[in-house]
Backbone:
């Protein structure tokens, strides 16, 4: 299949491991990516916290750019995904707003393409069985908890992602890779990402709570699909609370034995290599 | 004259706040509630009571993380997350000093970065935030690590058609 690809700012900087592994996995699963032409930032929390119209117009500019290629747009970053879905929701439900935003952009929004996250694309288009069939190196000994966070799921009528209080697609995917996925009650709890820089002490407490819960569940790592969660969970927990955090695509890439799959582990802020070495996965 | 409640409801543009029957699910599920001066459901009560000044100058509106747990669990679909956005925006428009000043300064630094290059450049944005907030030394140890790990691009990324991005900021400026 072929989709438009919106990397967003994070995937070209802090979240580069996500971009690299996403591209490798897409290639291996025959998902052809066409980057949205001349994309710009989605506005993230900063826009919707301060100016509603701006928070719709910024992602709308990218949606309109993606519409030119007439393919569904795949948005790996959970934060960008949320802002895209939010813009779509408001533009489709509020005619006055749509007219106003089209005036700002000088272009029409058609609303004809779907906004999709790679978890959904891989789970629903490729399928768990096809994924399991491509595993050459089972993730034996890896005990992840899957961490979805806020932005893929909420609000549910906007994100329309999956079971919003107890999602399972990531868990099933990690299971297909041979990992011993641990169940826990914190899959959709907030990590405090939006205040990570400006109110750090609050966020340290939130991240410590998550890490403590992951340990209690018997996990030795956390799997995420959000660059904000990744940065936050790697940087903010107290030193004795830290544990390796992976993008789900990094583990798919490793399990499929894709070239370069070990490269992304070098740039993590909490080094996952000792764990992977100990389990003889690298 | 419009009451504070009418003003907020108009801006939320959804289920009116009067639909809240104070079951407090929002406050129970809110990860930031214990740090807030007023819990989310109390904010609704205060809006109904017309306590505008008290709310706009409170820390509560700036400590909301926008995790959207409140609206997800509200039995009446009251959009509390959007309500918090509306209150923050009102505070900005009316020139009320943000009680959690650094939260707003971070947002401003982030938006300037978009205006500058169309895409966010994390290093420039962080420097800008630090200069605005005066919080020069926190996370200072992270910068060299990130540079070494190639996580901070040296050159700011650019959207080619910057004019269109800057036009969005210009045309959506609050009057």
Residues:
């Amino acid at each position: 299949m072929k989709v438009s690809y919106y990397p967003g700012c994070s995937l070209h900087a802090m979240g580069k491991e996500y971009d690299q592994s996403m591209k490798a996995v897409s290639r291996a699963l025959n998902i052809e990516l066409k980057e949205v032409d001349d994309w710009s930032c989605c506005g993230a929390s900063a826009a919707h916290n301060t100016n509603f119209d701006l928070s719709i117009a910024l992602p709308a500019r990218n949606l309109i750019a993606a519409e030119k290629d007439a393919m569904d747009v795949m948005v790996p970053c959970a934060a960008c995904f949320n802002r895209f879905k939010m813009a779509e929701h408001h533009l489709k439900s509020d005619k006055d707003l749509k007219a106003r935003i089209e005036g700002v952009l000088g272009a029409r929004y058609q609303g004809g393409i779907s906004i999709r996250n790679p978890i959904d694309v891989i789970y629903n288009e490729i399928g768990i069985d096809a994924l399991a069939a491509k595993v050459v190196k089972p993730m034996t000994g890896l005990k992840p908890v899957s961490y979805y966070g806020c932005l893929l799921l909420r609000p549910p009528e906007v994100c329309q992602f999956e079971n919003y209080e107890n999602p399972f697609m990531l868990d099933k995917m990690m299971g297909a890779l041979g990992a011993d996925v641990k169940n826990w009650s914190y899959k959709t709890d907030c990590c405090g990402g939006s205040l990570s820089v400006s109110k750090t002490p609050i966020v340290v407490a939130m991240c410590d709570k998550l890490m403590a819960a992951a340990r209690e569940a018997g996990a030795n790592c956390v799997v995420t699909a959000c660059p904000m969660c990744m940065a936050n969970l790697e940087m903010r927990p107290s030193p004795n609370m830290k544990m390796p955090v992976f993008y789900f695509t990094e583990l798919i890439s490793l399990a499929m034995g894709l070239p370069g799959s070990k490269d992304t582990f070098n740039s993590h802020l909490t080094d996952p290599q000792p764990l992977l070495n100990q389990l003889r996965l690298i | 004259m419009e009451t504070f409640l009418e003003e907020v409801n108009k801006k939320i543009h959804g289920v009116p706040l009067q639909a809240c029957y104070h079951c407090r699910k929002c406050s129970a599920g809110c990860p930031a509630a214990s740090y807030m001066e007023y819990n989310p459901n109390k904010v609704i009560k205060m809006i109904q009571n017309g306590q505008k000044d008290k709310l706009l100058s409170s820390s509560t509106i700036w400590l909301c993380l926008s995790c959207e747990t409140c609206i997800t669990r509200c039995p009446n679909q009251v959009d509390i997350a959007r309500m918090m956005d509306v209150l923050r925006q009102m505070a900005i428009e009316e020139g009320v000093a943000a009680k959690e000043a650094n939260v707003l300064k971070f947002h401003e630094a982030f938006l300037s970065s978009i205006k500058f290059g169309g895409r966010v450049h994390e290093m420039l944005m962080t420097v800008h935030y630090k200069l605005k907030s005066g919080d020069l030394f926190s996370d200072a140890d992270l910068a060299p690590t990130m540079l070494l790990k190639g996580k901070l691009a040296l050159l700011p990324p650019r959207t080619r058609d910057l004019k269109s991005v800057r036009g969005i900021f210009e045309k959506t400026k609050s009057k």
Notes: Residues 32 and 64 of chain B are 6 Å apart (CA to CA). Chain B is about 55% helix and 0% strand. Residues 101-171 of chain B form one domain.
